[in-house]
Amino acid sequence: MNTEKLHILLADDDKDDRFLFQEALSELPLATELKTVHDGEQLMAYLMDNAQNLPDVLFLDLNMPRKTGFECLSEIKITDELMQLPVIMFSTSYPRDMNYEQDMIKMLYKIGATDYIRKPANFAELKEVIHNSLLKIEELIKTK
User: pTM of the prediction?
Assistant: First the structure.
């Protein structure tokens, strides 16, 4: 296990979700540093201001005010300075309509998402999905 901290950026407009994400991270056996932004416009401004020092991974909420996760992902993947940033889409969507959700996930991957996570209902599952995603990101970093 490397001793480098994994630099994580979370873009989520829900204060409770940001808090739970931070709590889950703090309980994982990984060295991490978390920064948060609470809407798509703030996210894009942060990324452009820090284009020379991007986080290792961005967890991006799909449904945010001012600029959606879809819009942000599209913008990130067409911007030269940002396109290599791994983006994990993080959504509260529910499988009411599995076809719609599957089509949406396919579209996100086509645009360039690294992974897609449906926000789980309980804390233990949240920790597990975040941990699994971060292990994938660590592997990605090692292969660079």
Answer: 0.93
CA 58 vs CA 34, 96, 100: distances in Å: 10, 27, 24
Residue 44's Cβ-side half-sphere holds a number of Cα atoms within 13 Å equal to 17
- Map residue 20 onto helix, strand or coil: helix
The two counts, helices (H) then strands (E), for the chain are 5, 5
| Domain coordinates in residue numbering, the chain | 6-142
- Report whether 90 contacts 62 (CB < 8 A): yes
User: Which CATH superfamily includes the segment(s) 6-142?
Assistant: Response regulator (3.40.50.2300)
Higher pLDDT, 2 or 126: 126
**CA-atom Rg of the chain in angstroms:** 14
What pLDDT shows up at residue 96?
65
Tell me the sheet residues that pair with 46. Answer: none
